[in-house]
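Data card: per-record layout.
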Amino acid sequence: MLSAFGLNCTLKRGDQPSSTQKLLDQVLRALDGYGVSTAYERAVDHDIKPGVKTDEGAGDAWPAIRKRIDQANIFVLATPIWMGQPCSVAKRVLERLDAVFGEIDEHGIYPTFGKVAIVSVVGNEDGAHHVTAELYQALADVGFTIPGGSSSYWVGEAMHKKNYIDLDQTPEALAGAIQTQACNAAHLAALLQEKPYPATR
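The structure for this 201-residue chain is written out next.
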């Protein structure tokens, strides 16, 4: 059975209402519909130390989170937009994934090869394409495979206060994007599980 691990990079701790969590929940439910077991964490609830190593020492919560990413077939990275950028929590996650470059084996195989990554983004102004591009570039650099049509995002009208969590219904276009994202991620993950990337050295 395929598995997915979602990492919510909201700035809101615990069970505080979160637009990012709402979208992540919808993506994970869609993946479940394609036979994928799912789990998630809020990154801000854990003491992820700054740095670029797999383990930054005493009290660092990243090694346990990284283990869950490594164990999953699909990594779902969800972030809000702040000032037109991926939030600081998402950027720290990317920085910690930099350690992958030191874990490439003698055959040129990254530990992330064969794993799919998808991104979900929410904000109350424009910036979703920029944020998605930043995250996917970094995730591809560290070895994740990106499926086609794999972005789900919502941004509200500029200078207004309505957040995604305030919507009574999911917009039709977004609902379709979520289904496409989940379907393609599950399909690609199954293919990569059956036929992994070959050695390059």
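Known properties of this structure: The two ends are 30 Å apart (CA to CA). The beta strands are 3-8, 37-42, 74-82, 85-86, 116-123, 151-155.

See the next section for split statistics.
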